[in-house]
């Protein structure tokens, strides 16, 4: 019988969020003042103040696209003097582009693509930075945010993207870079921002961001969000989520500050099943690099191959943070951050399976990918940062200790697709069942038409919870130190060093709870960064840098695609794979220049880089892995962010990436891919977003986003085509408290694919989407 999924309690929180927003808007319009005055700065002019309640020097324009400094104290110099590529997506860019989630926001950063997930590799955000999977390299306020998720941005102030190996900053992983979400926190002053967005495809989104100052030193902030929508150009796909993020701050403007923050997000979606690749007549084994397969929907790009009566995806994220910060003196600050986070995924996702060649005869096998996973993380991070003078030389430094425990529990569902009475309970074989005569009822609706699938087919297989699974626990003990040494007005040296002890325990067990395999691994590694900065002028720099990263076995704890998994993994014959459990290592060489022009309103950057991954894990025979591979990505990046004039802003960039598998090891199947491009690594990508204030009330803007051809696998036998997407916006201030904004995304309604899976399918991006927002500010 079919399985009807119970609904998450979305409606009540949504109504609550809407009611609160409307009530506060109506009740406060005549009472709230526009802003509170900023507190005075107590530190001297040469002090670097990080994460405190005041900012040294002139206040930055909150509407500017240009950002002077990263939020983490581990970056010990302003961005113009930091010898690596860092892009900060500020709040104004998030607003102007109409971004609704992290993936929306990251499309403005060239050199980042997204990969698709399925069952083993989980659903959720899977960014690739400079060609390297960064699914496990996302941070929240500088602390690792473990667990596969689709991240919202209603409580995010800005997003910081650091490119190049970044283990010295964040720890394990980060082969191509890392992503840090900066959360909205309570601050001094009263303010209120609320809004609702109505758009095409039944989009309804409500947000509220209210900050209230309770006393001279205490403030609270509350962010609420409710969102539901379908997806333009995609049949049956829908998103339904709500979230709340309260924040309390004590001691603002004093030497000791305490922040209490909480974040909760729930979602209940009908996930996109994707579009299958075409394959040659000989089946998937006959695919070739010279004629790679591309996604094809049988003539209608809106085709949905899933089953609305079976498919679902639920998610939940809870994060609680206590941060205590104390100024020891005018130049030194100590901060302790304690966080506990929990995330959950629960889904059954139909994969349009092409592996048996059935797509050639116009049919699609509805393969069920399933997952039930829970991840809990507790982290304590203590930092000491500030300025000291040693032998007359200024040192802007940060040092700290990180202790964390992460635990992931992963299991699944058993989806029985054999609907013939009296037959053994075994899944049907798509190789024999998906023929033209078996579409629909004869196959129990496990097979559907490539050109005309019916998402509402009355599938009547059975679904049971499969409690067999894997538990993985990781413990991290780390020490780190960073320093920007000022040798003179023209010369700076940037240094960083981190030691990690990563202890992993794992076990697999059957449905009865009996352990079938267990083991552990201990990795110790040191990563670092070193850069020399020459400043020919105060507003510019030329730099050369070197940085490393390390990826130990089990680094994602089963919550991402792990290129260096733990031992005990069975091969296709059920034999346990042996492995050389050394961390994979990545190193980066970079030369670049950064300039702040037009009175520091516009930032221009350019760099040349070469990233090499050594000791990569490869399979050498049917039962053995070893660290023998090597890959390489090298290229050029350019960016321009900020104001060209008082009325004209730009946020633009370009990335060229030449990627290659240099050595796949001795196994012939891997060796055959030597010289191929890496998956999810376009040679060229570019983004341009710009706005112009036509009148004091009217602002118009638009953007173009280009991504070159992207291969789905290292064999280069699956590919999605390049695309150009155009966006447009217009914003109008009705009063000083109310404004309207219209965003039209994918203006030309181009059909393109923004997520490529390795072999079976690709995910299609949304078509033309119009969003009209009404925003209130007090």
From TrEMBL:
Residue numbers spanned by region Disordered: 282-301, 408-431, 554-583
Annotated ranges, domain TonB-dependent receptor-like beta-barrel: 267-747
A molecular function GO annotation: signaling receptor activity
PROSITE patterns named among the record's database cross-references: TONB_DEPENDENT_REC_3 (PS52016)
Residues annotated as domain TonB-dependent receptor plug: 79-177
Cellular component, GO, one term: cell outer membrane
Membrane topology field: Multi-pass membrane protein
Annotated compartments: Cell outer membrane
Biased composition (Polar residues): 411-423
GO biological process: siderophore transport
Pfam families per UniProt: Plug, TonB_dep_Rec_b-barrel
Keywords: Cell outer membrane, Ion transport, Iron, Iron transport, Membrane, Receptor, Signal, TonB box, Transmembrane, Transmembrane beta strand, Transport
Sequence similarity: Belongs to the TonB-dependent receptor family.
Protein name: TonB-dependent siderophore receptor
């Amino acid at each position: 019988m079919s399985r009807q999924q119970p609904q998450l309690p979305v409606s009540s929180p949504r109504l609550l969020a809407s009611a609160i927003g409307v009530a506060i808007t109506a009740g406060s319009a005549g009472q709230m003042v526009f802003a509170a005055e900023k507190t005075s700065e107590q530190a001297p002019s040469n002090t670097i103040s990080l994460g405190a309640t005041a900012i040294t020097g002139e206040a930055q324009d909150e509407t500017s696209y240009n950002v002077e400094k990263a939020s983490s104290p581990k970056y010990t110099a302003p961005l113009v003097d930091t010898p690596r590529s860092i892009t900060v997506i500020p709040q104004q860019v998030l607003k102007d582009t109409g971004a609704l989630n992290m993936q929306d926001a990251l499309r403005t950063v060239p050199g980042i693509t997204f990969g698709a997930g399925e069952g083993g590799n989980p659903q959720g955000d899977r960014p690739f930075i400079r060609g390297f999977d960064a699914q496990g390299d996302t941070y929240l306020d500088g602390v690792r945010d473990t667990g596969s998720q689709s991240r919202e941005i209603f409580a995010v102030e800005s997003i910081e993207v650091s490119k190049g190996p970044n283990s010295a900053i964040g720890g394990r992983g980060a082969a191509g870079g890392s992503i840090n979400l900066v959360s909205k926190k309570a601050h001094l002053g009263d303010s209120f921002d609320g809004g609702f967005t109505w758009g095409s495809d039944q989009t309804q989104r409500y947000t509220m961001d209210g900050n209230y100052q309770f006393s001279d030193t205490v403030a609270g902030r509350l962010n609420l969000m409710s969102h539901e929508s379908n997806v333009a150009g995609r049949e049956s796909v829908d998103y339904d989520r709500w979230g709340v993020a309260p924040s309390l701050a004590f001691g603002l403007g004093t030497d000791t500050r305490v922040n209490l923050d909480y974040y909760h997000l729930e979602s209940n979606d009908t996930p996109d099943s994707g579009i299958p690749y075409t394959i040659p007549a000989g089946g998937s084994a006959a695919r070739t690099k010279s004629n790679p397969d591309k996604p094809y929907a049988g003539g209608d790009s809106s085709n949905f191959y899933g089953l609305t009566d079976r498919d679902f995806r639920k998610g939940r994220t809870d994060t609680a943070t206590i941060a205590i910060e104390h100024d020891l003196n005018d130049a030194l600050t100590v901060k302790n951050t304690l966080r506990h986070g929990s995330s959950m995924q629960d889904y059954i996702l139909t994969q349009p399976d092409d592996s048996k060649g059935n797509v050639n005869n116009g049919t699609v096998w509805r393969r069920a990918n399933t997952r039930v996973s829970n991840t809990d993380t507790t982290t304590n991070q203590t930092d000491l940062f500030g300025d000291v003078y040693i032998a007359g030389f200024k040192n802007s430094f940060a040092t700290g200790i990180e202790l964390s425990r992460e635990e992931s529990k992963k299991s699944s569902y058993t989806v029985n697709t054999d609907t013939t009475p009296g037959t053994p309970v075994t899944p049907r074989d798509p190789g024999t069942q998906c023929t033209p005569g078996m579409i629909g009822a004869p196959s129990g609706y496990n097979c559907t038409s490539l050109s005309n699938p019916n998402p509402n087919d009355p599938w009547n297989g059975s679904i049971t919870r499969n409690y067999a699974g894997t538990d993985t626990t990781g413990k991290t003990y780390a020490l780190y130190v960073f320093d920007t040494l000022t040798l003179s007005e023209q010369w700076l040296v940037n240094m960083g060093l981190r030691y990690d002890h990563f202890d992993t325990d794992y076990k697999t067990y059957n449905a009865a709870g009996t352990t079938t395999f267990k083991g552990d691994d201990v990795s110790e590694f040191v990563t670092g960064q070193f850069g020399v900065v020459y400043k020919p002028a105060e507003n510019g720099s030329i730099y050369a840098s070197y940085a490393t990263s390390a990826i130990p076995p089990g680094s994602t704890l089963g919550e991402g695609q792990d290129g260096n998994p733990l031992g005990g993994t069975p091969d296709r014959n059920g034999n346990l794979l042996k492995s050389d459990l050394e961390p994979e290592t990545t190193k980066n060489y970079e030369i670049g220049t950064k300039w702040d022009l037009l009175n520091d309103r516009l930032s221009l950057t350019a760099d040349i880089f070469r990233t090499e991954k050594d000791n990569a894990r490869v399979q050498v025979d049917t039962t053995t892995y070893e660290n023998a591979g090597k890959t390489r990505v090298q290229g050029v990046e350019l960016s321009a962010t900020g104001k060209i004039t008082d009325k004209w802003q730009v946020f633009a960039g370009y990335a060229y990436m030449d990627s290659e598998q240099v050595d796949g090891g001795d196994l012939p199947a891997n060796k055959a891919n030597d010289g191929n491009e890496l998956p999810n690594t376009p040679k060229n990508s570019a983004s341009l977003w710009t706005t112009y204030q036509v009148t004091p009330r009217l602002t118009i803007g638009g953007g173009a986003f280009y991504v070159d051809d992207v291969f789905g696998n290292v064999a280069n036998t699956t590919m999605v085509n390049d695309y150009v997407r155009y966006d447009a916006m217009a914003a109008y201030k009705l009063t000083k408290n109310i404004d309207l904004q219209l965003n039209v995304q994918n203006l030309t309604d181009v059909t393109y694919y923004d997520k490529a899976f390795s072999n079976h399918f690709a995910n299609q991006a949304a078509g033309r989407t119009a969003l009209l927002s009404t925003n209130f500010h007090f």
